[in-house]
Design brief:
20 helices, mainly alpha, two-stranded antiparallel ribbon
Protein backbone atom coordinates (compact mmCIF):
# COMPACT_ATOMS: atom_id res chain seq x y z
CA UNK A 1 0.00 0.00 0.00
CA UNK A 2 1.35 3.40 -1.02
CA UNK A 3 1.25 5.96 1.79
CA UNK A 4 2.86 8.90 -0.01
CA UNK A 5 0.21 9.52 -2.69
CA UNK A 6 -3.54 9.42 -3.18
CA UNK A 7 -5.21 6.04 -3.49
CA UNK A 8 -8.89 5.61 -4.24
CA UNK A 9 -11.02 4.55 -1.25
CA UNK A 10 -13.15 2.62 -3.74
CA UNK A 11 -10.32 0.15 -4.24
CA UNK A 12 -8.76 0.44 -0.76
CA UNK A 13 -11.98 0.18 1.28
CA UNK A 14 -15.15 -0.62 -0.62
CA UNK A 15 -15.00 -2.61 -3.88
CA UNK A 16 -14.38 -6.35 -4.10
CA UNK A 17 -11.23 -7.78 -5.69
CA UNK A 18 -13.42 -9.38 -8.35
CA UNK A 19 -14.83 -6.03 -9.50
CA UNK A 20 -11.42 -4.39 -9.24
CA UNK A 21 -9.94 -7.01 -11.57
CA UNK A 22 -12.62 -6.36 -14.19
CA UNK A 23 -11.40 -2.75 -14.41
CA UNK A 24 -7.72 -3.61 -14.07
CA UNK A 25 -5.03 -2.90 -16.64
CA UNK A 26 -4.45 -6.63 -17.01
CA UNK A 27 -8.08 -7.29 -17.98
CA UNK A 28 -7.94 -4.37 -20.42
CA UNK A 29 -4.78 -5.37 -22.24
CA UNK A 30 -5.58 -9.09 -22.33
CA UNK A 31 -8.88 -8.15 -23.97
CA UNK A 32 -7.02 -6.00 -26.52
CA UNK A 33 -5.00 -9.04 -27.55
CA UNK A 34 -8.12 -11.21 -27.82
CA UNK A 35 -9.65 -8.58 -30.10
CA UNK A 36 -6.54 -8.48 -32.27
CA UNK A 37 -6.66 -12.26 -32.58
CA UNK A 38 -10.38 -12.14 -33.48
CA UNK A 39 -9.68 -9.50 -36.16
CA UNK A 40 -6.79 -11.47 -37.65
CA UNK A 41 -8.80 -14.71 -37.69
CA UNK A 42 -11.73 -12.96 -39.33
CA UNK A 43 -9.51 -11.38 -41.99
CA UNK A 44 -7.83 -14.73 -42.70
CA UNK A 45 -11.20 -16.52 -42.98
CA UNK A 46 -12.41 -13.84 -45.39
CA UNK A 47 -9.44 -14.30 -47.69
CA UNK A 48 -6.63 -11.94 -46.67
CA UNK A 49 -3.05 -13.19 -46.83
CA UNK A 50 -2.73 -14.14 -43.15
CA UNK A 51 -1.32 -17.52 -42.15
CA UNK A 52 -2.37 -19.88 -39.38
CA UNK A 53 1.22 -19.73 -38.17
CA UNK A 54 0.84 -15.99 -37.56
CA UNK A 55 -2.41 -16.50 -35.66
CA UNK A 56 -0.94 -19.33 -33.59
CA UNK A 57 1.96 -17.06 -32.68
CA UNK A 58 -0.48 -14.35 -31.54
CA UNK A 59 -2.46 -16.87 -29.47
CA UNK A 60 0.74 -18.13 -27.85
CA UNK A 61 1.37 -14.66 -26.43
CA UNK A 62 -2.21 -13.63 -25.68
CA UNK A 63 -1.70 -13.75 -21.91
CA UNK A 64 2.01 -13.04 -21.25
CA UNK A 65 1.94 -9.32 -21.90
CA UNK A 66 5.36 -7.63 -21.99
CA UNK A 67 4.30 -4.53 -20.08
CA UNK A 68 7.86 -3.22 -19.78
CA UNK A 69 8.25 -3.02 -23.55
CA UNK A 70 4.86 -1.32 -23.98
CA UNK A 71 5.59 1.18 -21.23
CA UNK A 72 8.99 2.12 -22.69
CA UNK A 73 7.52 2.47 -26.17
CA UNK A 74 4.66 4.71 -24.91
CA UNK A 75 7.22 7.13 -23.47
CA UNK A 76 8.56 7.55 -26.99
CA UNK A 77 5.38 7.65 -29.11
CA UNK A 78 2.78 8.92 -26.56
CA UNK A 79 0.14 6.51 -27.87
CA UNK A 80 -1.09 3.61 -25.75
CA UNK A 81 -2.59 1.48 -28.54
CA UNK A 82 0.41 1.73 -30.86
CA UNK A 83 2.72 0.99 -27.91
CA UNK A 84 0.89 -2.27 -27.29
CA UNK A 85 0.76 -3.11 -30.99
CA UNK A 86 4.55 -2.69 -30.97
CA UNK A 87 5.01 -4.75 -27.80
CA UNK A 88 2.83 -7.56 -29.19
CA UNK A 89 4.87 -7.47 -32.40
CA UNK A 90 8.12 -7.85 -30.46
CA UNK A 91 6.75 -11.12 -29.04
CA UNK A 92 5.21 -12.15 -32.39
CA UNK A 93 7.77 -11.30 -35.12
CA UNK A 94 6.00 -13.41 -37.75
CA UNK A 95 2.61 -11.77 -37.06
CA UNK A 96 4.01 -8.28 -36.49
CA UNK A 97 2.91 -6.95 -39.87
CA UNK A 98 -0.75 -8.00 -39.60
CA UNK A 99 -1.56 -7.04 -35.99
CA UNK A 100 -4.28 -4.33 -35.92
CA UNK A 101 -4.63 -4.55 -39.72
CA UNK A 102 -7.33 -2.15 -41.00
CA UNK A 103 -8.33 -1.11 -37.49
CA UNK A 104 -8.28 2.17 -35.59
CA UNK A 105 -7.53 2.64 -31.89
CA UNK A 106 -11.21 2.48 -30.99
CA UNK A 107 -11.35 -1.07 -32.31
CA UNK A 108 -9.53 -2.25 -29.20
CA UNK A 109 -10.39 0.65 -26.90
CA UNK A 110 -14.14 0.85 -27.39
CA UNK A 111 -14.81 -2.86 -27.87
CA UNK A 112 -12.86 -3.52 -24.68
CA UNK A 113 -14.89 -0.90 -22.80
CA UNK A 114 -18.08 -2.65 -23.89
CA UNK A 115 -16.74 -6.08 -22.91
CA UNK A 116 -15.63 -4.79 -19.50
CA UNK A 117 -18.99 -3.12 -18.82
CA UNK A 118 -20.78 -6.36 -19.71
CA UNK A 119 -18.59 -8.37 -17.32
CA UNK A 120 -19.13 -5.75 -14.60
CA UNK A 121 -22.91 -5.78 -15.16
CA UNK A 122 -22.89 -9.58 -14.81
CA UNK A 123 -21.20 -9.26 -11.40
CA UNK A 124 -23.66 -6.54 -10.35
CA UNK A 125 -26.50 -8.79 -11.53
CA UNK A 126 -25.21 -11.66 -9.40
CA UNK A 127 -24.92 -9.53 -6.26
CA UNK A 128 -28.31 -7.92 -6.86
CA UNK A 129 -29.96 -11.34 -7.13
CA UNK A 130 -28.42 -12.33 -3.80
CA UNK A 131 -29.63 -9.14 -2.10
CA UNK A 132 -33.14 -9.90 -3.40
CA UNK A 133 -32.85 -13.47 -2.08
CA UNK A 134 -31.80 -12.31 1.41
CA UNK A 135 -34.55 -9.70 1.52
CA UNK A 136 -37.16 -12.28 0.56
CA UNK A 137 -35.96 -14.59 3.37
CA UNK A 138 -36.19 -11.71 5.82
CA UNK A 139 -39.65 -10.75 4.55
CA UNK A 140 -40.89 -14.32 4.87
CA UNK A 141 -39.48 -14.70 8.39
CA UNK A 142 -41.20 -11.54 9.65
CA UNK A 143 -44.30 -11.55 7.45
CA UNK A 144 -46.53 -11.96 10.53
CA UNK A 145 -44.73 -9.52 12.90
CA UNK A 146 -47.00 -6.49 13.33
CA UNK A 147 -45.28 -3.12 13.41
CA UNK A 148 -46.31 0.50 13.19
CA UNK A 149 -46.31 1.76 9.64
CA UNK A 150 -45.35 5.38 9.07
CA UNK A 151 -46.64 8.01 6.69
CA UNK A 152 -44.73 11.30 6.95
CA UNK A 153 -42.76 9.42 9.65
CA UNK A 154 -45.87 9.69 11.81
CA UNK A 155 -47.45 6.51 13.22
CA UNK A 156 -50.03 5.14 10.80
CA UNK A 157 -52.13 2.03 10.27
CA UNK A 158 -49.97 -1.00 11.18
CA UNK A 159 -48.19 -3.22 8.70
CA UNK A 160 -45.75 -6.10 9.31
CA UNK A 161 -41.96 -6.09 9.38
CA UNK A 162 -41.94 -8.54 6.48
CA UNK A 163 -44.35 -6.52 4.35
CA UNK A 164 -42.14 -3.45 4.72
CA UNK A 165 -39.17 -5.49 3.49
CA UNK A 166 -41.13 -6.41 0.35
CA UNK A 167 -41.18 -2.71 -0.54
CA UNK A 168 -37.37 -2.68 -0.54
CA UNK A 169 -37.23 -5.96 -2.41
CA UNK A 170 -39.63 -4.80 -5.12
CA UNK A 171 -37.43 -1.82 -5.97
CA UNK A 172 -34.38 -4.05 -6.34
CA UNK A 173 -36.42 -6.33 -8.61
CA UNK A 174 -37.20 -3.32 -10.82
CA UNK A 175 -33.48 -2.60 -10.96
CA UNK A 176 -32.75 -6.21 -11.93
CA UNK A 177 -35.34 -6.02 -14.72
CA UNK A 178 -33.75 -2.84 -16.07
CA UNK A 179 -30.25 -4.28 -15.78
CA UNK A 180 -31.15 -7.43 -17.67
CA UNK A 181 -32.81 -5.46 -20.44
CA UNK A 182 -29.72 -3.30 -20.96
CA UNK A 183 -27.37 -6.29 -20.58
CA UNK A 184 -29.37 -8.17 -23.21
CA UNK A 185 -29.20 -5.32 -25.72
CA UNK A 186 -25.57 -4.17 -25.47
CA UNK A 187 -23.62 -4.74 -28.69
CA UNK A 188 -19.99 -4.46 -29.72
CA UNK A 189 -18.67 -1.57 -31.78
CA UNK A 190 -17.05 -3.97 -34.22
CA UNK A 191 -14.40 -2.69 -36.63
CA UNK A 192 -15.66 0.34 -38.50
CA UNK A 193 -12.60 2.52 -38.98
CA UNK A 194 -11.79 6.14 -38.23
CA UNK A 195 -15.21 7.66 -38.96
CA UNK A 196 -17.33 4.52 -38.94
CA UNK A 197 -17.39 4.03 -42.70
CA UNK A 198 -15.14 0.93 -42.92
CA UNK A 199 -13.14 2.71 -45.63
CA UNK A 200 -9.95 0.83 -44.73
CA UNK A 201 -11.69 -2.51 -45.28
CA UNK A 202 -13.04 -1.34 -48.61
CA UNK A 203 -9.38 -0.95 -49.59
CA UNK A 204 -8.23 -4.22 -48.02
CA UNK A 205 -10.97 -6.28 -49.66
CA UNK A 206 -10.88 -4.53 -53.06
CA UNK A 207 -14.36 -3.09 -52.67
CA UNK A 208 -16.06 -6.46 -52.00
CA UNK A 209 -19.18 -5.26 -50.14
CA UNK A 210 -20.54 -8.72 -49.31
CA UNK A 211 -17.28 -9.75 -47.65
CA UNK A 212 -17.01 -6.51 -45.67
CA UNK A 213 -20.56 -7.05 -44.34
CA UNK A 214 -19.35 -10.28 -42.73
CA UNK A 215 -16.56 -8.68 -40.67
CA UNK A 216 -18.55 -7.28 -37.73
CA UNK A 217 -20.82 -10.34 -37.23
CA UNK A 218 -17.78 -12.63 -37.27
CA UNK A 219 -15.87 -10.51 -34.72
CA UNK A 220 -18.97 -10.32 -32.51
CA UNK A 221 -19.39 -14.09 -32.58
CA UNK A 222 -15.74 -14.70 -31.72
CA UNK A 223 -15.99 -12.30 -28.75
CA UNK A 224 -19.21 -13.85 -27.43
CA UNK A 225 -21.66 -11.18 -28.61
CA UNK A 226 -24.77 -11.51 -30.75
CA UNK A 227 -24.12 -8.42 -32.84
CA UNK A 228 -22.34 -5.11 -33.36
CA UNK A 229 -24.04 -1.74 -33.50
CA UNK A 230 -25.15 -1.30 -37.12
CA UNK A 231 -23.78 2.23 -37.48
CA UNK A 232 -21.26 4.32 -35.58
CA UNK A 233 -18.82 7.16 -35.84
CA UNK A 234 -15.32 6.32 -34.72
CA UNK A 235 -16.69 5.26 -31.30
CA UNK A 236 -19.76 3.44 -30.11
CA UNK A 237 -22.44 5.94 -29.10
CA UNK A 238 -21.76 7.30 -25.63
CA UNK A 239 -25.48 6.81 -25.07
CA UNK A 240 -24.49 3.25 -24.15
CA UNK A 241 -22.51 4.53 -21.16
CA UNK A 242 -25.51 6.66 -20.15
CA UNK A 243 -27.81 3.62 -20.15
CA UNK A 244 -25.36 1.62 -18.05
CA UNK A 245 -24.76 4.44 -15.55
CA UNK A 246 -28.52 4.89 -15.15
CA UNK A 247 -28.82 1.23 -14.14
CA UNK A 248 -26.20 1.77 -11.43
CA UNK A 249 -27.93 4.96 -10.27
CA UNK A 250 -31.24 3.10 -10.03
CA UNK A 251 -29.72 0.41 -7.82
CA UNK A 252 -28.10 3.11 -5.70
CA UNK A 253 -31.46 4.85 -5.21
CA UNK A 254 -33.07 1.59 -4.06
CA UNK A 255 -30.20 0.87 -1.68
CA UNK A 256 -30.31 4.42 -0.32
CA UNK A 257 -34.04 4.18 0.42
CA UNK A 258 -33.62 0.87 2.23
CA UNK A 259 -30.62 2.09 4.22
CA UNK A 260 -32.49 5.23 5.28
CA UNK A 261 -35.41 3.17 6.56
CA UNK A 262 -33.03 0.92 8.51
CA UNK A 263 -31.27 3.95 10.03
CA UNK A 264 -34.60 5.38 11.19
CA UNK A 265 -35.71 2.01 12.59
CA UNK A 266 -32.40 1.68 14.42
CA UNK A 267 -33.05 5.07 16.02
CA UNK A 268 -36.37 3.64 17.23
CA UNK A 269 -34.50 0.52 18.47
CA UNK A 270 -36.89 -1.69 16.50
CA UNK A 271 -34.41 -3.03 13.93
CA UNK A 272 -30.63 -2.99 14.01
CA UNK A 273 -27.93 -3.69 11.46
CA UNK A 274 -25.20 -6.22 12.40
CA UNK A 275 -22.83 -5.01 15.11
CA UNK A 276 -19.69 -7.05 15.70
CA UNK A 277 -18.44 -8.02 19.15
CA UNK A 278 -15.37 -5.78 19.09
CA UNK A 279 -16.86 -3.01 16.92
CA UNK A 280 -16.60 0.54 18.29
CA UNK A 281 -19.59 2.80 17.67
CA UNK A 282 -18.11 6.08 18.87
CA UNK A 283 -14.73 7.30 20.04
CA UNK A 284 -16.39 9.33 22.80
CA UNK A 285 -19.62 7.49 23.62
CA UNK A 286 -18.72 3.87 24.30
CA UNK A 287 -22.34 2.75 24.54
CA UNK A 288 -23.25 3.78 20.98
CA UNK A 289 -24.18 1.35 18.20
CA UNK A 290 -24.25 3.53 15.12
CA UNK A 291 -25.75 2.23 11.83
CA UNK A 292 -22.44 2.79 10.06
CA UNK A 293 -22.99 0.22 7.30
CA UNK A 294 -26.34 1.70 6.35
CA UNK A 295 -24.82 5.17 6.51
CA UNK A 296 -22.07 4.04 4.15
CA UNK A 297 -24.67 2.62 1.76
CA UNK A 298 -26.36 6.02 1.70
CA UNK A 299 -23.06 7.83 1.28
CA UNK A 300 -21.81 5.74 -1.63
CA UNK A 301 -25.28 5.69 -3.22
CA UNK A 302 -25.37 9.46 -3.43
CA UNK A 303 -22.02 9.31 -5.23
CA UNK A 304 -23.33 6.81 -7.81
CA UNK A 305 -26.54 8.75 -8.42
CA UNK A 306 -24.63 11.95 -9.09
CA UNK A 307 -21.98 10.10 -11.12
CA UNK A 308 -24.68 9.14 -13.65
CA UNK A 309 -24.66 12.75 -14.84
CA UNK A 310 -21.15 12.31 -16.24
CA UNK A 311 -21.99 9.89 -19.09
CA UNK A 312 -25.21 11.78 -19.84
CA UNK A 313 -23.38 15.07 -20.32
CA UNK A 314 -20.56 13.33 -22.21
CA UNK A 315 -23.09 11.71 -24.56
CA UNK A 316 -24.82 15.03 -25.15
CA UNK A 317 -21.62 16.91 -25.99
CA UNK A 318 -19.92 14.57 -28.46
CA UNK A 319 -19.22 16.32 -31.80
CA UNK A 320 -20.08 14.58 -35.05
CA UNK A 321 -18.12 11.32 -35.54
CA UNK A 322 -16.06 11.78 -32.35
CA UNK A 323 -14.18 14.12 -30.03
CA UNK A 324 -11.76 13.17 -27.29
CA UNK A 325 -13.37 15.08 -24.43
CA UNK A 326 -15.06 11.81 -23.43
CA UNK A 327 -11.86 9.90 -22.65
CA UNK A 328 -10.65 11.32 -19.35
CA UNK A 329 -14.19 11.48 -18.00
CA UNK A 330 -14.98 7.90 -19.04
CA UNK A 331 -11.84 6.61 -17.34
CA UNK A 332 -13.23 7.91 -14.06
CA UNK A 333 -17.01 7.81 -14.20
CA UNK A 334 -17.62 4.28 -15.51
CA UNK A 335 -15.10 2.30 -13.39
CA UNK A 336 -15.84 4.30 -10.24
CA UNK A 337 -19.59 3.95 -10.69
CA UNK A 338 -19.18 0.18 -10.87
CA UNK A 339 -16.67 -0.01 -7.99
CA UNK A 340 -19.03 2.03 -5.80
CA UNK A 341 -22.15 0.01 -6.66
CA UNK A 342 -20.15 -3.16 -6.00
CA UNK A 343 -19.34 -1.91 -2.50
CA UNK A 344 -22.97 -0.85 -1.97
CA UNK A 345 -24.33 -4.29 -2.88
CA UNK A 346 -21.81 -6.03 -0.63
CA UNK A 347 -22.94 -3.78 2.22
CA UNK A 348 -26.61 -4.43 1.43
CA UNK A 349 -26.00 -8.17 1.47
CA UNK A 350 -24.11 -7.93 4.75
CA UNK A 351 -26.74 -5.75 6.43
CA UNK A 352 -29.81 -7.72 5.34
CA UNK A 353 -28.15 -11.05 6.12
CA UNK A 354 -27.52 -9.94 9.73
CA UNK A 355 -30.48 -7.62 10.34
CA UNK A 356 -31.68 -7.89 13.95
CA UNK A 357 -35.35 -7.36 14.85
CA UNK A 358 -36.52 -6.47 18.38
CA UNK A 359 -40.17 -7.62 18.65
CA UNK A 360 -40.62 -6.40 22.25
CA UNK A 361 -39.65 -2.84 21.35
CA UNK A 362 -41.86 -3.00 18.25
CA UNK A 363 -44.75 -4.22 20.41
CA UNK A 364 -44.18 -1.47 22.98
CA UNK A 365 -44.33 1.21 20.31
CA UNK A 366 -47.34 -0.45 18.73
CA UNK A 367 -49.32 -0.63 21.97
CA UNK A 368 -48.59 3.03 22.75
CA UNK A 369 -50.28 4.05 19.49
CA UNK A 370 -52.78 1.24 18.90
CA UNK A 371 -55.68 2.83 20.84
CA UNK A 372 -55.68 5.63 18.29
CA UNK A 373 -55.54 3.12 15.41
CA UNK A 374 -58.39 1.10 16.94
CA UNK A 375 -60.87 3.99 17.27
CA UNK A 376 -62.74 3.10 14.06
CA UNK A 377 -63.32 -0.47 15.26
CA UNK A 378 -64.28 0.80 18.73
CA UNK A 379 -66.79 3.19 17.19
CA UNK A 380 -68.37 0.36 15.16
CA UNK A 381 -68.69 -1.78 18.31
CA UNK A 382 -70.33 1.14 20.16
CA UNK A 383 -72.80 1.64 17.30
CA UNK A 384 -73.70 -2.07 17.51
CA UNK A 385 -74.33 -1.50 21.22
CA UNK A 386 -76.91 1.20 20.38
CA UNK A 387 -74.84 4.38 19.93
CA UNK A 388 -75.16 7.14 17.32
CA UNK A 389 -72.34 7.03 14.79
CA UNK A 390 -72.03 10.81 14.27
CA UNK A 391 -72.11 11.61 17.98
CA UNK A 392 -69.60 8.85 18.75
CA UNK A 393 -67.26 10.11 16.03
CA UNK A 394 -67.18 13.55 17.66
CA UNK A 395 -66.65 12.09 21.15
CA UNK A 396 -63.74 9.93 19.90
CA UNK A 397 -62.18 12.98 18.26
CA UNK A 398 -62.41 14.93 21.52
CA UNK A 399 -61.12 12.05 23.65
CA UNK A 400 -58.26 11.39 21.21
CA UNK A 401 -57.15 15.03 21.55
CA UNK A 402 -57.28 14.68 25.32
CA UNK A 403 -55.27 11.43 25.29
CA UNK A 404 -52.76 12.98 22.89
CA UNK A 405 -52.27 15.86 25.31
CA UNK A 406 -51.68 13.38 28.13
CA UNK A 407 -48.95 11.66 26.09
CA UNK A 408 -47.25 14.72 24.60
CA UNK A 409 -47.69 17.39 27.25
CA UNK A 410 -47.64 15.36 30.45
CA UNK A 411 -45.38 12.55 29.22
CA UNK A 412 -47.74 9.87 30.49
CA UNK A 413 -49.01 6.66 28.87
CA UNK A 414 -51.81 6.70 26.33
CA UNK A 415 -55.06 6.63 28.36
CA UNK A 416 -57.56 6.74 25.47
CA UNK A 417 -59.10 3.37 26.34
CA UNK A 418 -59.70 4.48 29.93
CA UNK A 419 -61.32 7.72 28.71
CA UNK A 420 -63.62 5.80 26.34
CA UNK A 421 -64.57 3.26 29.01
CA UNK A 422 -65.47 6.10 31.36
CA UNK A 423 -67.76 7.74 28.79
CA UNK A 424 -71.32 6.35 28.99
CA UNK A 425 -71.96 7.23 25.33
CA UNK A 426 -69.92 4.19 24.29
CA UNK A 427 -71.43 1.64 26.66
CA UNK A 428 -68.19 -0.42 26.57
CA UNK A 429 -66.11 -1.71 29.49
CA UNK A 430 -62.33 -1.37 29.72
CA UNK A 431 -62.04 -5.16 29.46
CA UNK A 432 -64.08 -5.17 26.28
CA UNK A 433 -61.97 -2.38 24.84
CA UNK A 434 -58.71 -4.14 25.74
CA UNK A 435 -59.83 -7.21 23.81
CA UNK A 436 -59.66 -5.11 20.66
CA UNK A 437 -55.95 -4.42 21.27
CA UNK A 438 -54.55 -7.34 19.24
CA UNK A 439 -52.15 -5.74 16.70
CA UNK A 440 -52.78 -8.54 14.19
CA UNK A 441 -56.35 -7.29 13.76
CA UNK A 442 -55.05 -4.07 12.22
CA UNK A 443 -52.40 -5.17 9.71
CA UNK A 444 -54.87 -5.81 6.91
CA UNK A 445 -53.53 -8.22 4.28
CA UNK A 446 -49.85 -7.52 5.03
CA UNK A 447 -49.05 -11.19 5.71
CA UNK A 448 -50.99 -12.46 2.69
CA UNK A 449 -49.49 -9.81 0.41
CA UNK A 450 -46.00 -10.79 1.55
CA UNK A 451 -46.65 -14.48 0.92
CA UNK A 452 -48.11 -13.78 -2.51
CA UNK A 453 -45.26 -11.44 -3.47
CA UNK A 454 -42.62 -13.99 -2.51
CA UNK A 455 -44.39 -16.91 -4.20
CA UNK A 456 -45.51 -15.19 -7.40
CA UNK A 457 -42.86 -12.52 -7.97
CA UNK A 458 -39.62 -13.28 -6.12
CA UNK A 459 -39.43 -17.07 -6.30
CA UNK A 460 -39.66 -17.28 -10.13
CA UNK A 461 -36.83 -14.73 -10.39
CA UNK A 462 -34.65 -16.64 -7.93
CA UNK A 463 -35.41 -19.94 -9.67
CA UNK A 464 -34.31 -18.41 -12.97
CA UNK A 465 -31.04 -17.27 -11.38
CA UNK A 466 -30.38 -20.15 -8.99
CA UNK A 467 -26.82 -20.63 -10.27
CA UNK A 468 -26.00 -17.14 -8.93
CA UNK A 469 -27.25 -17.73 -5.38
CA UNK A 470 -25.16 -18.43 -2.28
CA UNK A 471 -22.96 -15.33 -2.10
CA UNK A 472 -21.70 -13.92 1.21
CA UNK A 473 -20.29 -10.42 1.38
CA UNK A 474 -16.92 -9.59 2.86
CA UNK A 475 -16.74 -6.06 4.33
CA UNK A 476 -13.21 -4.61 4.48
CA UNK A 477 -13.84 -1.88 7.05
Amino acid sequence: MSTDRYTSPLSERYASREMQYIFSQDMKFRTWRKLWIALAETEKELGLNITQEQIDEMKAHAEDINYDVAKAREKEVRHDVMSHVYAYGVQCPKAKGIIHLGATSCYVGDNTDIIIMVEALKLVQKKLVNVIAELSKFADKYKDQPTLAFTHFQPAQPTTVGKRATLWCQEFLMDLEDLEYVLGTIKLLGSKGTTGTQASFLELFDGDQETIDKIDPMIAQKMGFKACYPVSGQTYSRKVDTRVANILAGIAASAHKMSNDIRLLQHLKEVEEPFEKSQIGSSAMAYKRNPMRSERIASLSRYVMVDALNPAITSATQWFERTLDDSANKRLSIPEGFLAIDGILDLCLNVVDGLVVYPKVIEKHMMAELPFMATENIMMDAVKAGGDRQELHERIRELSMEAGKTVKVEGKDNNLLELIAADPAFNLTLEELQKTMDPKKYVGRAKEQTESFIAKVVTPVLDAHKEMLGMHAEINV
